[in-house]
Amino acid sequence: MRTTSNKLAFTVPAVVTFVIAVICSSTIGKNQDIKNKSAVEGPTEQQLRAGYNFMQTKTYTQEQDQQILKLFEGLRVSDVSDGMDKAGLANIGLMSPEIHASWKDTAHFTHRFVGIAVTVRYVPTNEPPRRGTMSIEEFDDWVDTMYANVTGEPFTEIIRPGTALVIDDDPTRDAGSIGSHNILEWQSKGCVGVVTSGGARDTDEVAAQKIPLYMKTVARGIRPGRNIIESVNRPVSCGGVLVRPGDVIVADGDGVIVVPRKKAKEVAEYARATIETDKTGRRDFYKKLGLEPDDSVK
Mean pLDDT across the chain, nearest whole number? Predict the structure, then answer.
């Protein structure tokens, strides 16, 4: 018996030591693989100097976009916020209240929209302002050249039905990147609403045209001489929130919320249950109070 015990006493530590050695060897191997993988796949010095995007843009088909939009149809920012909480994204995606509706329709709520993000980034120009010594023709030619080559709207080509245009812009430049004319063009291509961290002009006409617009400030100047276009369909920051192309944008009188695409279905399902419960309860109160049903409870 003593001999058997001695063998066991020797065998167990040996096995444990062997297992630990195997695990350590495996871990070291995995760590080395990660290092080697990073070294192989990481950007080169030349790529970094030339400019390198670490956050890649994922693309979706129009059919995929429409499937997601159907899930969010009729949902409010508050419902979606509840859905974000349920999905573990509390306090994520809610833009600053500074980003607000430029106009509101409290009868039919046409200022509300749900869309799929197409993103744009404008940055301030560092070129000196043009002196007022040009003729009208020279000035018009300069403006046309700037719009065509420096501060244009190449994103117009990728607007499609259901697009929510999200513009990262500097509000201190007083550049009206959005106006009553170009917002009509965007709408004609399928844009359902526009959100900007900068400013817009022609706001009276935009309200009359009833095109949903959410902005930080009113801006009066034209883009030429004030900002330049930096990128299209790259991740941007708007209202303190990360917006990736393809994310879901929901906007109403409460502001704007951004739903990460990968969480969209989970968020929408909970939000849908929330609004249906809310409508049922409010319809009962409408009856008790003798109120005529409006669009918010239908």
Answer: 89
